[in-house]
Amino acid sequence: MSNLHANGIDIEYETFGDAAADPLLLIMGFGRQMIAWPDAFCTAIADRGFRVIRYDNRGVGLTRTGPAPFTIDDMADDAAGLLTALGITAAHVVGASMGGAIAQSLAIRRPEMVLSLTSIMSGPGRLDQAGADPEVMRRIAEPPVADRDGAIDRAVRIARVVGTQATFDEARVREAAAREWDRAPSSAALERHGQAMAAAGDRTQALGRLSIPALVVHGEADLLVPVAAGRRTAEAIPGAALLVLPGMGHDLPQPYWQPVVDAIAEVAGRARTEVG
Question: Is residue 75 within 8 Å of residue 105, measured between CB atoms?
Answer without folding.
Answer: yes
